[in-house]
Q: What sequence folds into this?
């Protein structure tokens, strides 16, 4: 049995942010992640928005952590090397009746100390966003976009470099509180820890119920998205939001320009029974296109290159109003169990501030001494395709695998795929490659490069065909060899 | 940066690129360079290990690799230079190409360029199929590559969506390898692939073809577990009562091919939205002077034989192109009229005999083809049948007078 001081359950953006925060201190930390990589659920399937804080009720934890988190993002991006663009956001009023809502939002924003808010008229909107149709809009300059999986991966990999142990495909199946420690049962053996951080996202109630009777319910709420081809990247310049439905805390179907130049439509909002039901549906696809067209009438047909969904962890039922705050607290009944409950939007923005709060809670049990040898290792800078011809030539001179393009849509090189597969977490699914270097995320959706990536997995990493997966522990890509032959390459 | 100058640069070393390169060399180009992103030549042919290639053109039935070998030999004998594992990143209207390979970044100035980038397959999202996102979903061509080039089996219980030729061929191939092919699902009332492939790949193996059907749902959280298929009505909308679930671990998509013209679009070559390829004239010259187009990036051809013969013409014209020659004077636009999906070439700017190729919109029996100049019929021809899977080829004499007097020419079909 392995011993750690802190066990974090869940390698989403919250678990990874906590791991990274703790990796600055002399303390043994382990992360249990049931997926084949970090960011394998809601943390990869969201809008990737760094929220300003205008949408959460003043005085709430959501508002506090969101505004705090927002302020730290630029520094984090500089330190960890993930992409961040302050594209800003426009909340648009489609008619005069909605104008009052803009005033209300602005007021809430001011109370939350969100800077730079400005209500602008139709002609000013048209200047900035020629494709957007509205009567007026609230301009929010402190809203930005990241690639949510890239952010999570950056946190997790930097934590791993600083000796946090990440156990992928490791599902916590049992949790027992002993006198001075927890006994954690998993499909990969048993572990003992002093502290447990429950960052299991939509599964947070299952974890709590292993040790005590939960005093809350989880209401999973699915959000579907559509991804548009990069050729429509000029459709919008900033994020375009409708007026939110106040009582539910649902921000509405918005249009988000991504870091990569795609455009996201979504998310929908649909309460479901099954925590793992990440399907996409025809109804929602049609609805997303219809709603997005109300804001951007020029939205073209046949522009979609991908669709996906994520599950929000809501702590409130539709009957009781639809809005609940985060719960970031140590269990009253189980000392050492730190529960992070109901972390839905703006969870990604709030993650750095939540991680700091968790660190404070842990410091009540464990003495935290800063590491002297904490390493801030930025992920590799620009992609091959973003570099000048001179820089590209120099890279090829050093290592000629920079000269072999394996993803034709996104112009990703073999060197970048090899680097992605060499990640410190040991994540080796096809999607791990996609999320790290973008190979396979273009318009052909991996038609050309999947063969190359499979070849690289075999040649450079000695992986067996039978072990290759798409994105999750049992998502096998192949049924083995067509036939057994000697010297098969 | 490695700089050089070449007479004719062919982008793409598949069957079209090789045929164009060989032909350019045979027709007087001093230097011909083929750039290809794969480590092999022949494009998709090496993974097409079935036979039937070369019947029309060479009078023998060859496998894909054998057919490719013929052209690779010809290219070799004619002194065509090849750079493989080389990706073209861009070209421009001055015919300067930037390409990358393991030696570095290359800047190549070409007297003429022949575009021969081929095509790519449509994906699940072109058809917007809802459901889960499991593994086990492949485009038919990718599955073919895995089986035939990498000795890897994509799955055991297979449903194929779309009755394009690659899908039909794969139905048979998977049977040979011991898979259960549970059916081919086609949304149209007729197969999209060639009739002979329907017979030889499905009928001969009792594989069912579900016409007027489509896949409405994909289920499986990790690996594919089932697909739901449904009959469609006249508007191609699924009929809910007809839905049935088929348990399977693999779904192949043969939804059609999209000409690959990202490079052309970046260079501002005019694209025909009906073909997805460049707008070309009777010489296969695109809207950028000195840039020619051939093969499946111009239009998706039925057979490689047909594709090669047209690519040779493009290669010859590229070799004979003289920069600084007189602008082609008068240009007449060719329009796809009633019951015609598209016509290539889309522009005629020189009189003479022009080979037109086009596709019908839907199958019909004996019909008449009309070509009108500004509304006046000047050419007609009887067609025994029309099937969108079969490209129609017609040679039409465009007289200098007709060229001078016409604004547009319109091709249409009317059923008897």
A:
């Amino acid at each position: 049995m392995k011993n750690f001081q802190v066990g974090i359950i869940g390698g989403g953006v919250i678990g990874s942010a906590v791991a990274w925060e703790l990796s600055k201190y002399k303390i043994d930390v382990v992360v249990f992640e049931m997926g084949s990589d970090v960011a394998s659920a809601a943390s990869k399937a969201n809008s990737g928005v760094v929220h300003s804080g205008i949408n959460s009720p003043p005085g709430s934890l959501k508002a506090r952590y969101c505004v705090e988190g927002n302020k730290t993002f630029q520094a984090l991006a500089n330190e960890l090397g993930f992409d961040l663009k302050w594209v800003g956001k426009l909340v648009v009023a489609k008619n005069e009746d909605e104008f009052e809502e803009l005033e209300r939002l602005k007021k809430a924003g001011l109370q939350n100390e969100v800077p730079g808010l400005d209500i602008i008229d139709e002609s000013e909107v048209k200047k900035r966003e020629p494709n957007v149709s509205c009567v007026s809009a609230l301009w929010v300059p402190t809203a930005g976009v990241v690639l949510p999986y890239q952010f999570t991966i950056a946190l997790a990999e930097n934590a791993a470099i600083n000796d946090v142990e990440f156990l992928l495909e490791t599902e916590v199946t049992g949790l027992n509180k002993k006198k001075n420690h927890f006994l954690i049962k998993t499909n990969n053996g048993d572990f003992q820890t002093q502290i447990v951080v429950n960052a299991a996202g939509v599964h947070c109630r299952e974890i709590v119920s292993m040790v005590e009777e939960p005093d809350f319910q989880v209401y999973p709420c699915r959000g579907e998205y559509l991804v548009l081809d990069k050729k429509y990247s000029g459709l919008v310049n900033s994020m375009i939001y409708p007026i939110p439905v106040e009582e539910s805390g649902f921000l509405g179907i918005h249009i988000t320009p991504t870091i990569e130049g795609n455009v996201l439509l979504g998310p929908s909002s649909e309460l479901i029974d099954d925590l793992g039901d990440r399907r996409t549906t025809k109804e929602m696809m049609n609805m997303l296109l219809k709603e997005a067209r109300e804001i951007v009438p020029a939205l073209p047909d046949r522009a979609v290159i991908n669709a996906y969904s994520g599950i929000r962890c809501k702590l409130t039922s539709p009957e009781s109003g639809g809005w609940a705050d985060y719960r970031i607290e140590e269990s009253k009944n189980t000392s050492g169990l730190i529960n992070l409950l109901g972390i839905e939007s703006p969870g990604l923005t709030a993650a750095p501030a939540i991680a700091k709060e968790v660190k404070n809670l842990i410091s009540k049990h464990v003495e935290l001494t800063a590491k002297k040898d904490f390493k801030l290792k930025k992920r590799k800078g620009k992609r091959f395709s973003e570099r000048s011809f001179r820089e590209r030539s120099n890279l090829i001179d050093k290592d000629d695998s920079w000269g072999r393009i394996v993803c034709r849509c996104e112009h990703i090189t073999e060197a970048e795929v090899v680097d992605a597969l060499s990640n410190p977490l040991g994540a080796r699914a096809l999607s791990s490659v996609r999320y790290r270097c973008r190979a396979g995320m273009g318009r052909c959706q991996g038609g050309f490069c999947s063969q190359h990536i499979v070849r690289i997995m075999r040649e450079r990493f000695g992986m067996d065909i039978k072990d290759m997966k798409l994105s999750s522990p049992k998502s096998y890509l192949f049924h083995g060899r067509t036939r057994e032959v000697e010297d098969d390459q | 940066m490695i700089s050089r100058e070449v007479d004719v640069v062919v982008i793409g070393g598949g069957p079209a690129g090789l045929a164009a390169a060989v032909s350019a060399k045979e027709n007087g180009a001093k230097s011909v360079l083929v750039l290809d992103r794969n480590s092999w030549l022949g494009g998709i042919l090496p993974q097409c290990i079935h036979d039937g290639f070369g019947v029309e053109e060479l009078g023998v039935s060859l496998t894909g690799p054998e057919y490719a070998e013929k052209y690779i030999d010809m290219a070799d004998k004619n002194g065509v230079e090849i750079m493989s594992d080389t990706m073209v990143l861009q070209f421009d209207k001055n015919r300067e190409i930037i390409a990358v390979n393991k030696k570095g970044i290359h800047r190549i100035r070409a007297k003429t360029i022949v575009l021969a980038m081929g095509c790519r397959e449509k994906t699940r999202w072109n058809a917007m199929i809802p459901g889960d996102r499991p593994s086990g979903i492949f485009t038919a061509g990718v599955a073919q590559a895995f089986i035939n080039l990498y000795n890897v089996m994509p799955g055991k219980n297979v449903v194929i969506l779309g009755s394009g030729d690659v899908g039909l061929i794969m139905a048979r191939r998977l049977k040979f390898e011991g898979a259960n092919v549970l059916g081919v699902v086609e949304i149209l009332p007729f197969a999209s692939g060639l009739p002979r492939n329907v017979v030889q790949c499905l009928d001969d193996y009792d594989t069912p073809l579900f016409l007027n059907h489509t896949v409405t749902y994909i289920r499986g959280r990790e690996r594919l577990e089932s697909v739901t298929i449904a009959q469609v009505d006249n508007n191609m909308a699924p009929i809910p009562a007809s839905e049935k679930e088929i348990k399977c671990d693999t779904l192949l998509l043969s939804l059609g091919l999209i000409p690959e013209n990202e490079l052309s679009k970046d260079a501002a070559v005019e694209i025909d939205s009906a073909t997805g390829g460049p707008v070309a004239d009777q010489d296969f010259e695109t809207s950028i002077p000195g840039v020619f187009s051939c093969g499946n990036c111009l239009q998706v051809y039925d057979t490689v034989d047909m594709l090669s013969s047209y690519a040779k013409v493009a290669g010859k014209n590229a070799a004979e192109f003289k920069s600084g020659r007189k602008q082609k004077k008068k240009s007449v636009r060719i329009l796809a009229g009633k019951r015609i999906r598209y016509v290539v070439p889309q522009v005629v700017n020189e009189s003479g005999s022009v080979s037109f190729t086009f596709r019908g919109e839907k199958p019909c029996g004996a019909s008449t083809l009309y070509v009108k100049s500004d509304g006046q019929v000047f050419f007609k021809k009887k067609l025994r049948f029309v099937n969108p899977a079969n490209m129609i080829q017609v040679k039409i004499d465009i007289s200098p007078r007709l060229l001078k007097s016409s604004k547009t020419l319109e091709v249409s079909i009317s059923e008897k």
The mean pLDDT of chain B is 95. The two ends of chain B are 62 Å apart (CA to CA). Chain B touches chain A through 47 residues (CB under 8 Å). The first strand of chain B starts at residue 2 and ends at 11.
